[in-house]
Amino acid sequence: MEFNPKPFIAQAKQQLRQRQDVKRSLASLTGHVRASIDEVLEEIAKGGTGIPEMPFSQIENQSVTPDQIANIKTRGCVIVRGVFDRQQAEDWNDELGAYIDTNDYFTKAKEKAGLDKYFSQLDDAVPQIFGLYWSRPQVMARQAPAMAQTKQFLNRLWDVRGPMGAEFDPDLDYAYADRTRRRQPGDTTLGLSPHMDAGSYERWVDPAFQAVYAPVFDGHWESYDPWKATYRTQAREYSSPSVASMFRTFQGWTGLTEQGPNGGTLQLVPSTMSMSYMLLRALQDDVDDDDLCGAAPGRALGAEPKYHQELLRGLTTIPTVYPGDTVWWHSDIIHAVEPANTSENWANVIYIGASPACKKNQAYAVRQAQAFVAGRSAPDFAPEDYEIDFKGRATVDDLTPLGRRQMGM
User: Fold this and answer.
1) Separation CA 409–CA 401 (nearest Å)
2) Average of per-residue pLDDT values in the chain
């Protein structure tokens, strides 16, 4: 029997509406959201991109400035360039392509079509994403020292203090095995409409999420700090293929090809005010009592023009990135994929996020390590299990000491 979330939504909305004047709060917040988005648009109009960026060398030599950090915290995203040498990234791209072809991935994928339904409610719902987790390029990129150093910098942007001690260890990051995207030139079918991951209807219903967003729900959205980690690792997402049960400080990917505007690449709404707006918007009188602007269990949290146009004005395509560059965005940031790749380049990436050490992530890492050894799909994803008999997949022997620690081994 399919789970019906409507009674739980209705109950949560009734309770949350009693905690404040939600109409007044949204009206107050909307002005600040408009100003935030206007600032992004003004920067773009002056020739900027709206997306913070820095060379990896600044992280490596610890020369990132306070102004740069403040900008990342305001926009909720950053491009870190040159984490990997360009030739290394291009070699990984070639090796991944050979891995797919040698193991006849496309034939096997047809046999397992429909297992992954996470994006089924979004427009253009079939991104060109491969259900592969254990190719050598993916494993090598995850365990690279430069990647670990980058994620350590990103994790340290968070305030980890909690009532029972540190919410997570920013200096140790568990590997989160995710997939890879390979989008061919000319593709017009494989976009992804604006959404957030890391929880959908749970953000209003789950007690830990309610604690995370308590200032917003209590009518003090100005006091909400999206970089405060307290209670985030206790949040529980609805279990479903492709819903991350690891806590991620940042979602991210590593570029394997050159890609930019009109190249079928990533789009972001670079504002950390997005989540507060979405939370309050769903509590307004024009949304049914058992509805959260379409949020549904086990699905991505869509940003809809009907409800969230104030935010979607700021939907911005990232600037051109090159092989070896990495892109990162806070888990409460709206993101999308361009509907078409009209460039002459492939848009290929390896998804690698930041998932610091905590009890929640450690428990997942144990299950993930078992899947790795067997060549099965990572536990959070549809059980397609392509790689059990794939030639050339990574094994325990390919792990460095750092890689073993990141895998909880």
Assistant:
1) 9
2) 94
Per-residue pLDDT, 119? 54
Q: What percent of the chain has pLDDT over 90?
A: 86
> ∠273-251-222 over CA atoms, to 5°?
20
Q: In which region does residue 33 sit, left (phi positive, over 0), alpha (psi from -120 to 50) or beta (all else)?
A: alpha
Nearest CA-CA partner of 185 in 340, 367, 298, 386: 340
Q: How far apart are CA 231 and CA 199, in angstroms?
A: 14
Domain ranges (residues) in the chain: 6-406
At 401, the amino acid letter reads P
pLDDT score for 238:
83
**Which superfamily does 6-406 belong to?**
B-lactam Antibiotic, Isopenicillin N Synthase; Chain (2.60.120.330)
For the chain, state the CA radius of gyration.
20
In this structure, are residues 263 and 347 in contact, taking their beta carbons and an 8 Å threshold?
yes
Question: Could you tell me which residues are beta bridge partners of residue 252?
Answer: 328
> What is the C-alpha separation between 138 and 132, in angstroms, rounded?
9
Burial of 190 (0-12, 13-18, 19+ CB in 10 A): buried
pLDDT tens digits, one per residue of 10-66:
999 999 999 999 999 999 999 999 999 999 999 999 999 999 999 999 999 999 999
